[in-house]
Amino acid sequence: MTVAPTPQVDSVFELDALLSDEERAWQLTARAFATERILPVIEDDFENKHFRREFVRELGALGLLGMHLDGYGCAGAGAVSYGLVCLELEAADSGWRTFVSVQGSLAMSAIHKYGSEEQKQQWLPGMAAGELVGCFALTEAAGGSDPAAMTTTARREGDEWVLDGAKRWIGLASIADVAIVWARVDDTASGQAGNPGAQVRGFLVPTATAGFSATAIDGKLSMRASIQCDVRFDGVRLPASAMLPGARGLSGPFGCLNEARYGIVWGAMGAARSCLEAALERAKSREVFGRPIGSRQLVQAKLADMLLEYEKGVLLALHLGRLKERGALTAAQISVGKLNSVREALQIAHEARSILAGDGITSAFPVMRHAANLEAVRTYEGTDEIHALVLGRALTGLSAF
């Protein structure tokens, strides 16, 4: 792939000086894929609700799936390298950063963190190559921000587990080969009677198993080039070896969610950059009252504010990445990043649309697509409200949940 040019806003920023050669190489790999493969088709795909399955193996061949994991065909890249990849993919479309997050940060991370050696060998190499697709089934229709209230259950019958229940908004489920399913088990099986959180366990469910069904959710006005599903488990029978041995309680899925939230901190800034670039080009090319609108003070003030928040967001993401590489990143710090990045990216999208004027609502520009996608990103992996409460708890020592 050819190397895509450096975005104009980054030439002001000079982020490259803060990156290693390896980190820069990962970023350029992702930028080239986004520019050459995603951007030429994404407007049509968004309009037609089309997910390009053929891109999955291509992403695997580039080493971008589970790239932050070690071994089993994974690249073992650093946290900042992974974040930069998320930024470049989401600059094209949030749906493709979401795919990489679901596959790598959620499904593969669950197996890598909590799986047995046999489970890792069975699934991770194929998932890293893009030959197999995974999904992560935690959210339920009535649960949302309260996963401890899940009603999906797993009961033991002899040497088997039997799963019953339903999940909603599960990315990739209808095309997945394996689902990581989180379910409540009885107190005896959990080994921690009387602790509801400890009753939650993870299971590897091949999607060809009888009783598993996934239906893509239609009618979405956001993430239209991506797949999210309703999933049902009707007496799904699994061998005892299907349980993830290393995950006990909600700390299991939360450990994976924090990996995905970290990617969003970077990714949302990619969407913001795309919107800012569109507004900047329009400000220089569109003339009103005989002059480019970019020569007007109000427009320049908007562009300056957008650049300011973009630069601050990327610097925050870089700081969190360095903390993560040292093993010092906390859940509260991830909440700072997720809350700030998505909120500011949406504001940048809204300001960009105003500079584009009426044309900004058309598919001639990516801004409305990014704004619509960011509304979904704002909701999943923790809403603004939940992250605000996480920070409130960190500040006061008092939980408002």
Task: Explain what the structure shows.
- Pathway: Amino-acid metabolism; lysine degradation; Amino-acid metabolism; tryptophan metabolism.
- Belongs to the acyl-CoA dehydrogenase family.
- It comes from Microterricola gilva.
- It catalyses: glutaryl-CoA + oxidized [electron-transfer flavoprotein] + 2 H(+) = (2E)-butenoyl-CoA + reduced [electron-transfer flavoprotein] + CO2.
- The chain is 51% helix and 15% strand.
- The chain is globular, with a radius of gyration of 21 Å.
- The protein is α+β, with helices and mostly antiparallel strands and 401 residues long.
- A hairpin with a 2-residue loop joins strand 4 (153-157) and strand 5.
Could you name the key traits of this structure?
alpha+beta; 401 residues; Butyryl-CoA Dehydrogenase, subunit A, domain 2; seven-stranded mixed sheet; Butyryl-Coa Dehydrogenase, subunit A, domain 1; 11 strands; Butyryl-CoA Dehydrogenase, subunit A, domain 3
Task: Describe this structure in a few short sentences.
With 401 residues, the protein is of the alpha+beta class. It has helices at residues 8-13, 21-38, 42-48, 54-61, 79-92, 94-114, 117-128, 187-190, 251-285, 297-325, 331-356, 367-379, 384-396; strands at 70-71, 74-75, 134-137, 153-157, 160-171, 178-185, 200-206, 212-216, 228-239, 287-288, 291-292.
